[in-house]
Amino acid sequence: MQDLSDGLARFRRDVFPAKAGLFARLATTHRPTTLFIGCSDARVVPELITQSEPGELFVVRTAGNLVPAHASDPDGIAASIEYAVAVLHVSDIVICGHSACGAMTALAEGHDLSAAPVVSGWLRHADAARARVAAVPAAPGPARVAALVRANVAAQLQNLTTHPSVARALTDGTLTLHGWVFDIATGRVDPVDGAAVAA
């Protein structure tokens, strides 16, 4: 906790004064152009990867960068997507997976998640990606995880299209979806085509 307290002090002393004008504008204006849906993994920081300023990204982070398909019961992820698209009118949505993802590694390697039943239940939202990777001849460990990471981004893009606000904006031509995979070791970001879900 001391690290966080020290960071807060540095922010107030060094960072905030240099960006005081930006924060003054942000105090009354909230107009991000992109909804960034990424993994909760602490190594994947959307603002750092994209070099975005405060206010430019509307960020949702979930374990495994999973986006459940639309359902009638409200939930925080669906509410955030709807708010970003229907209220903030973002023009782009990025779903970003990453190398060495713990969620995808657990699925690819068949880890025992009985001690984490909520995590196990949550990861069912990657079932479509698992099915697609299972249909391909088995690859060695790291390659199988990498394949699942890519397939999962594509599957989550498909899930995203089931949300009514997203479907409407896509039909209206006011929204574009993007799939990315961030490689932690190299800093490289590779695109994932949503149409590749079926591949």
Plain-language structure description:
- 46% of the residues lie in helices and 15% in strands.
- It has helices spanning 2-18, 20-26, 46-50, 76-87, 102-108, 117-122, 127-134, 141-160, 164-172, and strands at residues 34-39, 57-62, 92-98, 176-182, 189-192.
- The protein has a five-stranded mixed sheet with strand order 2-1-3-4-5, with helices on one face.
- Helix 3 links the parallel strand 1 and strand 2 (57-62).
- Helix 4 packs parallel to helix 9 (164-172) and helix 5 (102-108) crosses helix 8 (141-160).
- The N and C termini lie far apart (46 Å).
- Residues 195-199 have low confidence and may be disordered.
Number of strands: 5
Overall mean pLDDT: 92
Put simply, the count of helices is 9
- Our Rg estimate from Cα atoms comes to 18 Å
**Biggest sheet statistics:** 5 strands, mixed
Strand content: 15-25%
3D shape:
globular
* Range of helix content: 40-55%
Terminal Cα separation, in Å? 46 Å
Sheet with most strands: strand arrangement: 2-1-3-4-5
Q: What's the order of the H and E elements?
A: HHEHEHEHHHHHEE
Low-pLDDT sequence parts: 195-199
Structure class? alpha/beta
Q: Summary?
A:
The protein contains nine helices and five strands, in the order H-H-E-H-E-H-E-H-H-H-H-H-E-E. With 199 residues, the protein is α/β, with parallel strands linked by helices.
